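Tutorial, part two.
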Amino acid sequence: MSDAIQQLDDAQLDGIVGGAGPSAALKPFVGEKGGVRVFTRTEHSSGSMTVSVADLGKYLSNLESRGMTTVGLCRTGSDKIEMHSIAEVKSWL
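Running the prediction step on this input gives:
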């Protein structure tokens, strides 16, 4: 079985391991354990949370319901926070 897995490309492997897998746009932000680190900032607080790809849509909708419009994401292996609109990130799901 391992030989067969080695011959699969990333998209096929994602399909086996975690359903459809993240889109190409989201993939650079997904860590080894399948989570995406989301940074948020309001006038009162800031923080970050690692959210699974499966739960990311619900989490972003929750942030939107609290009035947020943008979130920060870090590409895997980078410390630089990139700001993206919540609508844009949701379109990647």
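Residues 1-19 have pLDDT under 50 and may be disordered. In part three we will examine how such features are distributed along the chain.
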